[in-house]
Amino acid sequence: MNKEKVYIGIDAGSVSVNLAIIDQNARLLKKRYIRTNGAPINALRTALLENEKELGEKYTVAGAATTGSGRHLIGYLIGADEIKNEITSHAVAAMHYYDDVSTVIEIGGQDSKIIIIENKVVVDFAMNTICAAGTGSFLDQQAQRLGIDISEFGDYALRSSMPTKIAGRCGVFAESDMIHKQQMGYPKHDIIAGLCMALVSNYLNNVGRGKKIADKVVFQGGVAANRGIIKSFGETLGKKIHVAEHYDVMGAIGAALIALKKRNGRPGEKSKFKGAACFDGEISSEAFECRGCSNLCEIICVKRNGVRLFNIGGRCGKYERGD
Amino acid sequence: MGNLHVILTALFNKLGINYIIPPPITERTYEIGFRLSPEQVCLPFKICVGSFVEAIEKGADAIVMAGGNGPCRFGLYGMLQQKILSEAGYRFKMFVFDQDNILKVLSELSAIAGLNKLRIISAFRFAWKILKLCEENEKLSYYYRAHCGDKAAVDKIEKEIETLLLKTNTPAQADKLKKDLKFYYSSSLKTDIDSREVIKIGVLGEIYMMLDPEANMDIGRRLGRMNVWADKTIYLSSWLLKLTSLDYFSKTSYANQKKTAARYLKSDIGGKGVQTIASAINYARGGFDGLIHITPFSCMPELVATTIMPVVCRDNDIACLYLSYDGHTSRTAFITRLEAYVDMLKMNRTARR
Question: Cβ atoms within 10 A of the Cβ of B1, count?
């Protein structure tokens, strides 16, 4: 029986590990969004095992790629055919779904990016540098402070007819401004709407500074679930904001597309992907400090059943070599 | 600061001055520098302070620091550092040299070592030779790293030549090495990567970040490993020539660069501001795929240049990645940006073809 080939993309982010599985024709078969809660390896193991159960015998993984800040760790572990940065991955995914995209706004758990595309080619990009205001983690915190669930955040904002002014220059200032408005007795929904406006202007001033934002604007990343932020972007830019259908896993989809492209060019080679089998046995990681010089790098040693698989984390390559 | 210790080593060796090379810049250097320096000052200042302390700990009793008299606050660094370190309880003598007093400082130094001026001149010529060889080695390694599949082999040869250079004591040895340098590379390395696949990037910006691989996270070699041939606008030798105006007739002289940049920037903003604008234009004309602008966080001259650069890049149709460094810059974020930028330039090149 000829098994159908599928390609798997994994986005190992700060807050979640996302998975996308596509077929030979780049159609999305399956997506998963799993909060890591600080244990990315466990989260991924669960996801991969579930995948194998659901996909069953009919499919075979012909290629895999990882992206996101944990791409190297996860990539080595599962045997990725390609390890790609998240900017390229997001751009590839956005261009796949929107032929005429010019601007990609991506806001995730800890960072935010803008990608400028002309004629299906990335011509410019930027990432947040020193300020994490407006990213998912910050919104999570503020929702907690206001005592509401993050999933209701956007709806609260939409109810406001007069967003209160909140300083968006910096996350810390925004927070203290917000507390001040709370003490003054402003209604919750006005504060939340104000926060959305502030964060959008923070994004446009920091990440989007000097960039030409043209139609079509595509919004992706976890924060694209927040309707308040979408509305603020629309009002501030005076443009229609297209929220990608699979906004929450666009990075993973991009990685899967990259895997598909890479593997298609080399039909002779086998994929390096090890599947959930790479988690057989007990996977553990240990950190130790290298005393080779005063950099004192922390080396992470990943082991299976106590046997070393690989090391990462050094600067000079002393421990990475010979693996 | 990059190769500065190489030329000073050669110079002091010849002059018979006892010297101590500060240990390589590490996390500890950063830690000391950040603890003692004002928070808003730029990264080079902090690294220097850290290095000075580490040198004093190794027994140094005199510090030689470069100065300047342009609009950049760098001109005051020597003085300020002397004050900070003395207040922290360190005892040492400080020599600050700039374009105006370099000869005076040297004669003071030689008075300490009891030397005549002739010996200084010959020592200078020798040190210059060594410096040029160092830079030639670095440039060759950039070329070969981008064009060879086997990156580790390139690293190895570069290291071997560095070791040879440290052992070179006579002008004759230096001349021989100069003759053989290219051969070392060409004889043992295969340039097996199609040159059409190699991306060319011009690296420009602030001088300290440009010269010190530890401070700039080894951007030149890192790019080489991604099959990128990096060209830096500033090497120590070119800076020294500029400092002494000895490059007056060269194409890259300050006067010429001012002319190139004049459409965008008419006044001297200090640091390398004018050079940055001029080099961007020259790289674009030279057919480079893209630029990377590196600068320490809060650097005034480069901040001015950064605001002008988007216009320069648009007019000259070239892309630029802006990287601003301070001590908290994460390596992962840095590498992510570099990778994405190189991917982008590759896409652009394919699209243009």
Answer: 19
> Does the distance separating the beta carbons of B336 and A294 come in below 8 Å?
no
User: What local confidence, expressed as pLDDT, does residue A264 receive?
Assistant: 83
Instruction: Examine the domain organization and report whether A204 and A256 are in the same domain.
Output: no
Residue A12 belongs to a domain:
yes
Q: Is A164 among the domain residues? A: yes
Mark whether A228 and A268 lie in a shared domain.
no
Structure tokens at B139: 């440039």
pLDDT, tens digit (0-9, with 9 covering 90-100), for B284-341: 999 999 999 999 988 888 888 888 998 999 999 999 999 988 876 677 888 889 999 9
* Pair A39, A116 in one domain: no
- Asked if residue A141 and residue A187 are part of one domain, the reply reads yes
Q: Which residue of A has its CA nearest to B311?
A: A210
Residue A133: both structure tokens together: 């205001």
Domain that holds residue A68: 4-89+251-278
Residue A226 and residue A147 in one domain:
yes
Ramachandran angles phi, psi of B324, nearest 5°: -115, 125
Question: Is the torsion defined by CA of B301, B302, B304, B308 positive or negative?
Answer: positive
> Is the same domain home to A121 and A188?
yes
Half-sphere exposure of B329 (CA within 13 A, CB side): 20
Find chain B residues with C-beta within 8 A of A120's C-beta: 351
pLDDT bracket for residue B67 (50, 70, 90):
confident
Assess if residue A126 is contained within a domain: yes
What are the structural domains, with CATH classification, of chain B?
Answer: 17-114 (no CATH), 194-353 (3.40.50.11900)
Token pair of B60, please? 């140094």
CATH number at A163 reads 3.30.420.40
Contact with chain A for residue B58, Cβ under 8 A: no
pLDDT band per the 50, 70, 90 thresholds, residue B3:
confident
DSSP assignments along B190-259, one per residue: ---S-GGG-EEEEEEE-HHHHH-TTTTTTHHHHHHHTTEEEEES--HHHHHHHHTTTTTTSTTSHHHHHH
Distance from CA of A251 to the nearest CA of B (A): 13
Work out the number of other CB atoms within 10 angstroms of the CB of residue A161: 7
Dihedral over alpha carbons A202, A208, A212, A215 (to 10 degrees): -80
SS3 A123: strand
> How many domains does chain A contain in total?
3
Quote the CA–CA distance of B270 and B300 in Å, as a whole number. 8
Nearest chain A residue (CA) to B342 = A88
- Within a domain: residue A40? yes
